[in-house]
Amino acid sequence: MNDLADRIIEIYRDHGAAWDAGRGRSLFERVWLDRFRALLPDGGAVLDLGCGGADPIARYFIERGFAVTGIDTSPALLDRARERFPGHRWIFADMRDLRLIERFNGILAWNSFFHLRGDDQRRMFDVFQRHAAPGAALMFTSGPAEGEAIGALDGERLFHASLDPSEYRALLDRHGFDVVMHVAEDPDCAGHTVWLARAR
């Protein structure tokens, strides 16, 4: 599946408009976004890794007074984010190589981090730690168990991977995060497996 993992950025660049058009706006994620928000200071800074077109996830935070910095590798999706929310910052970058000078009160990788190979996911914990302010909230989605899976986007095969939950816990602890809540295949969130943690 290595060739499919290599094509993730290309697929979202080529099919970003289709993904944005098909992205539901019902905010089924609200229960988790509310939990994440409860750990943030009012008006805090949120880093959205894999922000897409900024709707509905970034919109949720913007409408509640947070300053959002979004990272994505799809120019088309970043253009949509800039059109929708010109007062916020939208950066063309690969999350794996991210080195911003500031730290954030919240770091979010919702349905983005799980497109990375296992080794890239392990290295992402350095990125999380480097960009986390003291007490920062971190939330990401993963698979329920170690393995790889293939989804689809606009007719293209789409790579997903997950580490074992015990390894995520160890990586979080090693990088200075405590698990606040973890639910595998949450029935209240369309079956998503979600991790919510907080920097020590």
- What sort of overall outline do the alpha carbons produce when their principal axes are compared? globular
Strand content: 25-35%
Biggest sheet strand line-up? 3-2-1-4-5-9-8
Helix and strand sequence: HHHEHEHEEHEEEHEE
Low-confidence stretches: none
The top level CATH class name:
Alpha Beta
What is the CATH topology? Rossmann fold
Q: Let me know the CATH homologous superfamily.
A: Vaccinia Virus protein VP39
| Secondary structural class | alpha/beta
The total tally of domains equals: 1
Q: End-to-end span in angstroms?
A: 36 Å
> Can you count the helices?
7
Briefly summarize what is shown.
By secondary structure, this protein is an alpha/beta fold.
Main features:
200 residues; alpha/beta; Rossmann fold; two-stranded antiparallel sheet; 32% strand
